[in-house]
Amino acid sequence: MGGTGKGASLTTALLATALWLQAMHALAFADRSLAEAPRGAVLLAQAQESGTFRGVGIVTAVEPATGALTLDHEEIKGLMPAMEMMYNVKARALSADLRKGDKVEFSLDAKSYTILDVKVIERAK
Ligand SMILES: [Cu+2]
Predict the structure, then answer these.
(1) Domain check: are 57 and 103 in the same one?
(2) Which of 1, 37, 62, 102 has the fewest CB atoms in 10 Å of its CB?
C-alpha cells in the first residue's frame, strides 16, 4: 500500500505542478489583456462618436493602392488624443498629391475613420 501511496502522491505533485503552470500561463494572458484594456476602451469610446471632426497632422505614409493616409496627428478635441494612425480617404485623389512629411489639415468622418477633405498647410522639406 505504501508504494501505491507514494505513486499517488507523486502523480498528485505532478498534476499540481501542471495546474500551477497552467494557472501561471492563464495569469500571463490575463495580465496582457488587462494591459490592453485601456486601449480597447479608448477605441470603444471613439467608435461611439459620430459626426465630422477637424484635425492637423503630419503625413507619415500614403498607401499607394487605396490612398489611405497614415497621419501623426495632434489631439482631435472630442474624439481622440494625439497619435499616429491610418485613415481611409473618401476618394483616392484626396491623397494623390501628398507625400511623407507634409503637414495637413483634414476633416474626418468619426464613425468610419474616413478623411473627407485634406489641405496641405506646409510642404515636406
Ligand atoms: Cu487618431
Answers:
(1) yes
(2) 1
Contact (Cβ atoms closer than 8 angstroms) between residue 74 and residue 56: yes
What is the average pLDDT across 55-79? Answer: 96
pLDDT band, residue 50 (cuts 50/70/90): confident
Are 21 and 65 in the same domain? no
pLDDT at 49: 76
How long is the chain? 125
Per the model's pLDDT, the better-predicted residue between 40 and 92 turns out to be 92
Domain count, the chain: 2
62 CA to centre of ligand 1 in angstroms: 16
The span from the first CA to the last CA of the chain, in angstroms, equals 85
Q: How far is the CA of 13 from the centre of ligand 1 (A)?
A: 51
Q: Are residues 65 and 79 in the same domain?
A: yes
